[in-house]
C-alpha cells in the first residue's frame, strides 16, 4: 500500500492536475522523485534555494489533497506489477533476496516485500489505499528536511505559513508484532532460469538502538565490502571459486534487520564448497579477530566516505531524514564518526561471535535451471529471422 501510494502521489490534486507537480519542478530547473523503503516513503526535490517555497507549496498541497482517482489507480497498479516483473521476477538474485527475507521474518512486517506479491497487488482496492493515505499522510507523521543555501530564521516562518493550517490527525498505529526468537538455521532453495548459482547467508542483528551497530558496520567492511575484503580475496582471488562476493548491512532500520553475505558461484564449482568457504572466513575472524591494520584501514575508508558525502545536500538530507523518521534522531548522524572511531578489534571479534552464528542464520541458495527447450528454440528462431 505504501509503495502504491508513492506512485499515486504524482496523480494530481484539485489544485494541480496529473503530472503538474513534476513538470512544475522541472520548469524551475529542479528534479524530483520518491522511493519507499522498509520503514518509510520519501519524496524529494532538488531545487535552487529561491525555489524552496514553491516546492513546499506543492508538497503541502498533496499531503492532504490527493485525488486518488479509481481509473488512475487501476492504470498505476499495472505499472507497479510491471515494475515487479522487471526488478524481481526477471532478476533471480533479487528474487532470492526477497525469499530469504520472507523466510527470516515470519511475523514482523519485514516479511513482506515492499513492492508486494502479485496476489496482494491484484487484491488491492482504491478504498484500502484511501484509508492508508488518511491514516499515515498527516503532518504529525511526517519529517521535513531542508538542506542547502538557506537561512533557517527566514525559512521557518514560511514553513509555518504553508503547513501550519493543515490539521494534524490521530497518531498512526506504531505497534509492530514482535518477531519470535529464531531457534535454528533456516534454509530455502530457489530454482530459476539463471546463469550461475548464488548464495546468500543472512543473520539477525540489532538496529541503531544497540551500540554494537558501529562494530557491525566495521565488520561488514572487513569481511565483504570491496575487493580488498576477506571474503572477496579468499573466494575470488585465492581459491578462484566465486565470481563476486559482498555484504549488506544498514544500521538505520526501525527494527532489528538482517546482516547478509552474498556470493556468486563460479561456473563448475560446487555450491556446498563455496558455502562452507564463506563460513570458514567467518569462523577465522571469530577465532583470531581482525588485525589493528585492517580495522584502521576500514575506519579510514568509512570516515572518508562519510566526509565526502557531506558535499552532497541530497545525501545529508537523506541521512537526517532517515535517522529522524526511524527514531534514531538527527543527532545519531552527527555522532556517527565519534562512535565509529571507538570500535576496537576486540569489539569486532565479539559481535562476530555473538551474531554470526548458525542458529541466527537464514540461508538462500539459487540453483540455475537448464534452459527451457521451447524458450531456447524461440530465441534461436527470432535471431535467425533478424539475420
- State which percent range the strand residues make up: 5-15%
Total DSSP E strands? 7
Q: Specify Rg, calculated over alpha carbons.
A: 24 Å
How far apart are the termini? 46 Å
SSE run:
HHEEHHHHHHEEHHEEHHHHHHEH
Structure characterization notes:
- The protein has about 375 residues and is of the alpha+beta class.
- It is built from 17 helices and seven strands.
- It has helices at about 1-10, 20-25, 50-65, 70-90, 90-105, 120-125, 125-135, 150-165, 210-225, 230-240, 270-290, 290-310, 315-325, 330-335, 335-340, 345-355, 375-385, and strands at about 30-35, 40-45, 185-195, 200-205, 240-250, 255-265, 360-370.
- Strands 3-7-4-6-5 form a five-stranded mixed β-sheet, with helices on both faces. A two-stranded antiparallel ribbon has the order 1-2.
- Helix 11 (about 270-290) crosses helix 16.
- The longest helix has 20 residues, at about 70-90.
- The radius of gyration is 24 Å and the shape is globular.
Amino acid at each position: 500500500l505504501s509503495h502504491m501510494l508513492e506512485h499515486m502521489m504524482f496523480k494530481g490534486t484539485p489544485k494541480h492536475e496529473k503530472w503538474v507537480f513534476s513538470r512544475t519542478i522541472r520548469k524551475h530547473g529542479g528534479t524530483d522523485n520518491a522511493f519507499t523503503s522498509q520503514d518509510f516513503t520519501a519524496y524529494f526535490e532538488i531545487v535552487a534555494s529561491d525555489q524552496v517555497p514553491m516546492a513546499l507549496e506543492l508538497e503541502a498541497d498533496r499531503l492532504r489533497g490527493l485525488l486518488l482517482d479509481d481509473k488512475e489507480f487501476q492504470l498505476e497498479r499495472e505499472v507497479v506489477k510491471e515494475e515487479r516483473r522487471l526488478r524481481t521476477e526477471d532478476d533471480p538474485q533479487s528474487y532470492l533476496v526477497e525469499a530469504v527475507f520472507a523466510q527470516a521474518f515470519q511475523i514482523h512486517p519485514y516479511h513482506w516485500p515492499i513492492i508486494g506479491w502479485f496476489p496482494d497487488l491484484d487484491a488491492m482496492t482504491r478504498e484500502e489505499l484511501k484509508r492508508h493515505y488518511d491514516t499515515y499522510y498527516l503532518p504529525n507523521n511526517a519529517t521535513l528536511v531542508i538542506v542547502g543555501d538557506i537561512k533557517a530564521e527566514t525559512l521557518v516562518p514560511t514553513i509555518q505559513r504553508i503547513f501550519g493550517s493543515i490539521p494534524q490527525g490521530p497518531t498512526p498505529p506504531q505497534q509492530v508484532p514482535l518477531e519470535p526468537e529464531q531457534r535454528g538455521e533456516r534454509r530455502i532453495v530457489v530454482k530459476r532460469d539463471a546463469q550461475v548459482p548464488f548464495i546468500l547467508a543472512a543473520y539477525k542483528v540489532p538496529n541503531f538502538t544497540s551500540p554494537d551497530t558501529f562494530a557491525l558496520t566495521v565488520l561488514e567492511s572487513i569481511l565483504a565490502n570491496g575487493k580488498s575484503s576477506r571474503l572477496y580475496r579468499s573466494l575470488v582471488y585465492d581459491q578462484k571459486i566465486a565470481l563476486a562476493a559482498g555484504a549488506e548491512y544498514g544500521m538505520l532500520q526501525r527494527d532489528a534487520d538482517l546482516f547478509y553475505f552474498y556470493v556468486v558461484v563460479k561456473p563448475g564449482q560446487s555450491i556446498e564448497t563455496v558455502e562452507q568457504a564463506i563460513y570458514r572466513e567467518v569462523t577465522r575472524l571469530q577465532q583470531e579477530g581482525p588485525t589493528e591494520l585492517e580495522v584502521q584501514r576500514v575506519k579510514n575508508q568509512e570516515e572518508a566516505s562519510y566526509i565526502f558525502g557531506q558535499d552532497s545536500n541530497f545525501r545529508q538530507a537523506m541521512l537526517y531524514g532517515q535517522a529522524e523518521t526511524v527514531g534514531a534522531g538527527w543527532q545519531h548522524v552527527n555522532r556517527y564518526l565519534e562512535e565509529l572511531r571507538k570500535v576496537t578489534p576486540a569489539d569486532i571479534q565479539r559481535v562476530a561471535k555473538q551474531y554470526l552464528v548458525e542458529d541466527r542464520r537464514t540461508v538462500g541458495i539459487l540453483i540455475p535451471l537448464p534452459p527451457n527447450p521451447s524458450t531456447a528454440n524461440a530465441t534461436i528462431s527470432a535471431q535467425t529471422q533478424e539475420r
